[in-house]
Amino acid sequence: MAASMFRVFDPRQLAHAPAQEFHNGGWAPHADLPARAANIADRLAPFEPARDLGRTPILRVHTPEYVDFLEHAHADWRAAGRPGDAIGYAWPVVGRRPLNLDRIDARLGRFSYDACTPVTPGTWEASYWAAQTALTALQPVLDGRERTSFALCRPPGHHAGADYLGGYCYLNNAAIAARAARDAGHARVAVLDVDYHHGNGTQDIFLDDGSVFFASIHADPASDYPFFWGHADERGVGEGEGANLNLPLPRGTTFEAYVAALDTALEAVARFDPSLLVVSFGADTFEGDPISHFRIATGDYPRLAERIAALGRPTLIVMEGGYAVDALADNVEGFLSGF
Ligand code: OKP
Ligand code: ZN
What we know:
Layout: E1 6-8, E2 20-23, E3 26-29, H1 34-44, H2 56-59, H3 64-79, H4 104-110, H5 123-143, E4 148-151, H6 173-183, E5 189-193, H7 200-206, E6 212-219, E7 244-249, H8 255-272, E8 276-281, H9 301-309, E9 315-319, H10 325-337
Parallel strand pairs: 1-4, 4-9, 5-6, 5-8, 6-7, 8-9
Antiparallel strand pairs: 2-3
{5-[(3-aminopropyl)amino]pentyl}boronic acid binds next to strand 2.
Protein name: Acetoin utilization deacetylase AcuC
Domain Histone deacetylase: 49-336
Keywords: Hydrolase, Metal-binding, Zinc
C-alpha cells in the first residue's frame, strides 16, 4: 500500500527549474516543472529525506570528467558571460575524435546529445540529491527491512549515460541504485523501465554487463524520442549479449496491448531471476500526458503495478517522467497502491 510503503523525497531536488527547451523548431516552456515532484510529495507525505551517501556510488556509473563538467557547467557558462540556463548548440557526430576542449559550448556538446536538457544554476544540487534519494530508498531493501521502496526522484535519470546528459536527465538515478545493489552483493539485478520513452542511458550503462538485465517498454523510437536507441534489435553486447530487451510499441497503445508487452518483459525478467528489481517508473504513459501518446488511464496504474509486484522480488521504484502535472499524483499513488 502507498500509505505504508517506504518512500524518500528531498526538496533540494526542486532547485532545478529549467526555463525552456528546444521543441519542434522553437523555444517552449520546459516540461519538467518542479511542481511535478512537489505535487507527488504533497499527496504522499510524509517522506524520509535523502541521506548523503556521497559521490562514490555516482562515480561507479558516471565518469569523473562528466561529473566534474556537470558540477561546474553553469558557473563556466556564467563566466563566459552567458545569461540564463546553459545549453549546447554543437555536437560531435558519433565517431569524431574525442577532443578535450575548454570552451563551454564545446564541453556542452561533448557531454550532451540534445537541446531539451539545460544546465541551470540548481541542476547539480538537484541531480545530486536525486541520486541520493534513489540510494537512500535502496538501503532498507538491501537490508531486508523493506520489500518495496519508492524514490521520488527529480530530475529523472534514465536518459543520462555514463558521460552524457539528455532527455531532462543528468545523473542516472536508477542505474546508480542498480550498480550500488550489485556492489552490495546482489549477483543479478534487473531494471524494468516503464516510462513512455526508451531509457537509453540505462541501456548504454549496462549494455555489455551481463549481471544487470535491462528491459524497456516504450514508444517506438522510429516515431518518438530518443530515436537513436530503443529498437528491438538492441540485445546487448559481449558479456551483456541477451541481457537487454527492448519492446517498442506504437503511438496510441492501450492498456490491453501494453500489458501484453509488459508480460513479455516480466517473463524475461523472471527467467533472468534477479535478486533485486529496479523499476524506472514514468507516468507519461498516461492518456492525458502532454508530450506522449499512449492511452493508459489513471485506473490502469494499480493493475499495471500488480503485475510487476507479482514477480515477488525486492523492488526499488524510481520516479522518471510524467508531465500531466494535475493528474500525476493520482497516477503515482495508483501505481504504488498496486504493490
Ligand atoms: C524524459 B523522460 C523536444 C521534445 C523531446 C524529450 C523527452 C524527455 C522525456 N523538446 N522531449 O523520459 O520522461
Ligand atoms: Zn519519459
